[in-house]
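Example S7 (structure tokens).
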């Protein structure tokens, strides 16, 4: 049985005008993480895991003291303290929390490394944690040095405010 061969598909010239890649980069888009009017206290009280809820209350008090800021909900699950406005060379700009945390099911997520980075010397003294690009993942506050964490929060907050003033 003979195999019928077909010619490769022909490329058709694009008749649309060329798009400006720079225009796409400067296009204004809304951040997904924005301040909301949701109650911080109600959010914490609704946390199912008792350890996370207890840790969230402790972090709330500590971050209020460390930053001098009142807490605000950012999106559905992040509690932030302070904010700053950023603008990148690409033209993208927006507002973001200076420091904050989120009591997730698996771990407590602390948004404190944005201005410090994972090589921050204080992290060696903190206790067990994991990290992402701008956050720390902590299983329980009982296993870390709270005074070191407070120093990290203060340093991150001040550095963020200074860098983005």
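Recovered sequence:
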């Amino acid at each position: 049985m003979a195999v019928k061969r077909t010619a490769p598909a022909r490329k058709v010239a694009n008749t649309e005008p060329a798009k400006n890649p720079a225009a796409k980069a400067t296009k204004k888009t809304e951040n997904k993480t924005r301040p909301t009017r949701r109650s911080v206290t109600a959010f914490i009280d609704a946390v199912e895991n008792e350890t996370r809820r207890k840790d969230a209350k402790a972090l709330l008090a500590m971050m209020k003291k460390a930053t001098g800021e009142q807490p605000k909900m950012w999106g559905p699950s992040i509690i932030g303290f302070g904010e700053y406005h950023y603008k990148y060379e690409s033209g993208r700009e927006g507002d973001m929390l200076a420091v904050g945390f989120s009591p997730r099911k698996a771990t407590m997520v602390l948004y404190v490394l944005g201005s410090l980075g994972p090589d921050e010397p204080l992290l060696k003294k903190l206790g067990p944690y994991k990290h992402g690009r701008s956050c720390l993942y902590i299983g329980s506050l009982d296993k870390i040095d709270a005074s070191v964490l407070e120093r990290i929060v203060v340093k991150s907050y001040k550095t963020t405010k200074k860098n983005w003033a």
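Notes on this example. The first strand starts at residue 71 and ends at 74.
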